[in-house]
Amino acid sequence: MADSKPSMILILGVTASGKGRLAFELARRLEGEILSVDSMKVYRRMDIGTAKPSQEARQVVRYHMIDVVEPSESFSVGLFCQQAHAAIGDVRSRGKRVVAVGGTALYIKALLYGLFAGPGRDEKIRAELQARAEREGLAKLHGELAQADPATADRVHRNDAKRIIRALEVYQLTGQPISSFQKQFDAANATDEWVIIGLRREKALESRRINARVKKMIEQGLVDEVRSLLAEQRPLSQQARSAIGYAEMIEHIEERTSLDDVVEQIKKNTRRLAKGQRTWFRTFRNVNWIDIAAEESVESVLDRAEMLLA
Q1: Helix, strand, or coil (residue 307)
Q2: Which site in 6, 112, 133, 307 is 20 to 30 Å from 232, CA atoms measured?
Q3: Phi-psi region of 89 (alpha: psi -120 to 50; beta: other; left: phi over 0)
Q4: Residue, of 180 and 273, whose pLDDT is higher
């Protein structure tokens, strides 16, 4: 590399914060490659609802960890770490910078600090919880999680069967909430190779940006995208079905609620996701926060980000 700027850069922020645009512009300026740290962008053909970068952007900058698995398959933080570290090694072996970007806090934390030490799987407990979910509904289990572990329930979507069941499984096995194990991440052990940049806006402005993004997704054809996914021969995995934007739209397509109501529910659930992201990010150390003004341009944010890399 010709200059002294760091080789490993991570950009984080809540959904619709502008981190994807900043990562693209920064990678282009630094001739780097982008590592997506997002639990849903890994799924092929789930494009609009996950706000993937356009094909035009991907022709300009190389992206990693996008479109790596079928929507019918499950994916995990462990698989992400394994593939992400391989991608990082590949990028660095070619003398390129890594510009990681994402809002999936668990994936970010695992990438930086490693996987937390929690109990292993218990197939009997898991099967019992799965049967209860099918019999009684996920809402009932999510309510129990809220009683046992409010912090986790606040972060986990009510349709996210995988994480609800895992959290209840850990609680039954240990008598402790899964969030207590996740706190065992030791930020002090994070590699100093990463320069971490966080984007922040006032909460009201973030909410307006989220609402505008949801409106744009509907205009881009989110309804048709979900219809197409549901028509595929292999059914969507529970993880893919639970993604915000997809879970709500499936209810509309199955004629359980109106499109207007679905749009408002997606906005509400996305704002709730942003609240959970803010909670997670407050636990991260060594983040260089950029507080973005309402009318601040991308170029201005890019210049401020580059100053942090000097």
Answers
A1: helix
A2: 133
A3: alpha
A4: 273
